[in-house]
Amino acid sequence: MSQKHKDKVEKQFTKTAEAFAEFAVRDSAEVTAEKVQFSKPQPDAVALDVACGPGAFVLALAPKVLFAYGIDLTAEMVRRARALQTDRGIANAGFSRGEAEQIPFGDASFDLVSCQCAMHHIQKPEIVLREMVRVMKPEARLMLIDPLGPESDSKFELYNRIEVIRDPSHTASLRLTTYLALFDKLELETVSQTVKRRLRSFNHWMLRAGLKPGDKRYQEARKLLEDSANGDRAGVSPEPQQDDIQIVHNEGMFLLTRRAVA
Ligand SMILES: C[S@@+](CC[C@H](N)C(=O)[O-])C[C@H]1O[C@@H](n2cnc3c(N)ncnc32)[C@H](O)[C@@H]1O
User: Fold this and answer.
1) In the predicted model, what is the mean pLDDT of residues 84-107?
2) Are 61 and 40 spatial neighbours (Cβ–Cβ below 8 Å)?
3) Is residue 235 part of a domain?
């Protein structure tokens, strides 16, 4: 990862750490519980969540495993995760700063390695996936969750353009077909896979990125979104709702393991 991009990510998530925690409606207790269940946690497992943000997933996972770690590039996110851990009184979890491109743990350290809603901030997803595989024990599971970009080229371009206006540390939301090709290249096999239609409030989604109505980037993104409605040209099915717009993110959820040697 370039230093320039690293600075962009940290700046964005330091500035928005509070808003992110407050408006992270996508991380309702029910959705977090659904993700924990999807990861098929085992009581004797040692887990690592890469780019853990304010720690909601790690702390929901911890009661189901032996120990759950979270790493994140942004110091403020790690601070918030530790504070949430103290509030919840959870002993078997730990958080530290760390880069997804250079995971600060040895080979074959974990039974479960996850990364959610962070791949779209990564410049070279293959490097991060390789790192995640490196720290997996031989029989370990890898869980990846991220909003999927549209398959159509024009929708993909507009979808990601709106994302970058909202959050300059966004790189690209990859397509389902790109992920499947990457998993194949890395010799990963699917244990389970699903695509969830997550309904979002545009206004909350913007607030999570630190933007409110009246802000220049809010207006720019909103105009592009409204103009895209005819023909759903950004692939997010926008529906006006009073002063808000409902949008849909297609969230890919993948649980993978190393391909068995024939
Ligand atoms: C949208 S937030 C998601 C946080 C959390 N996984 C969740 O779902 O709530 C993205 C997080 O990825 C972190 N991040 C982005 N690039 C990273 C990198 N290369 N290494 C580690 N963390 C990174 C950011 O600091 C931020 O906390």
Assistant:
1) 97
2) no
3) no
**Please, which residues bridge with residue 95 across strands?**
70
Cα–Cα distance for residue pair 33/145, rounded to 1 Å? 14
Q: pTM value?
A: 0.94
Q: Which residues contact 178 (CB under 8 A, 6 or more apart)?
A: 149
In a domain, 51, yes or no: yes
Ligand 1 is surrounded, with C-beta below 6 A, by 1, 9, 13, 27, 51-53, 56, 72-74, 77, 99-101, 116-118, 121-122
Distance in Å, CA 143 to ligand 1 centroid: 15
Tell me the CATH number at 180: 3.40.50.150
**Structural domain contains residue 203:** no
Q: What is the 3-state secondary structure (H, E, C) of 72-127?
A: ECCHHHHHHHHHHHHHHCCCCEEEEECECCECCCCCCCEEEEEEECCHHHCCCHHH
The per-residue pLDDT for range 41-71, each reduced to its tens digit, is 999 999 999 999 999 999 999 999 999 999 9
Residue of 233, 146, 161, 126 lying closest to 193 (CA atoms): 146
Beta strand 136-147 with 67-72 is: unpaired
Separation between Cα atoms, residue 24 and residue 56, nearest integer Å: 10
CB-CB contact of 124 with 101 (8 Å): yes
Total domains in the fold of the chain: 1
